[in-house]
Amino acid sequence: MDKSKTTFKTVDLVYIALGAVIIAICSWIYIPTVVPFTMQTFAVFAVLSVLGGKRGTMAVIVYLIIGAIGVPVFAEFTSGIGIILGNTGGYMVGFIFIGLIYGLAVKAFGKKLWVEIIAFVIGIFVCYAFGTAWFMVVYAREFGAVGLMTALGWCVFPFVIPDLVKLALALVLARRVPTLRE
What is the pLDDT of residue 22? Predict the structure, then answer.
């Protein structure tokens, strides 16, 4: 049997599904704004920290897929490909980058607290960059061009401190759960 191939066991699939459910439940906890304040990012950080990079990233992808096909797992119990292709969808797609960066960092340097913190901070800023670029393109198609500072003011600056708090909370709580990473 070739060990170099990536395979998922039944237990991995269950963990991935549970991770996607946790992200969905946390996305329903929200305060509506242009980009809703949700607990999605908390769940992404916690799921990645508990499940590890590979399974955690797969949980994010499953969450996005089930939302895209119509299961109401996004903020405000919404769903559909239109949400992902909408002006804030880039931030949700950006969660995949958080998972990839986290997985690579932990694989390279080990699952140490400082590695997780740096990986998540880099990941969230990559998510912000990707999401903001996406927002500006989609917003321009619908309403006209928007400046970078305006987009950052609407979509990033109000979320930096809350996301860092969610990151800290997720790491504290994830440390209390037995590690289920691959």
Answer: 98
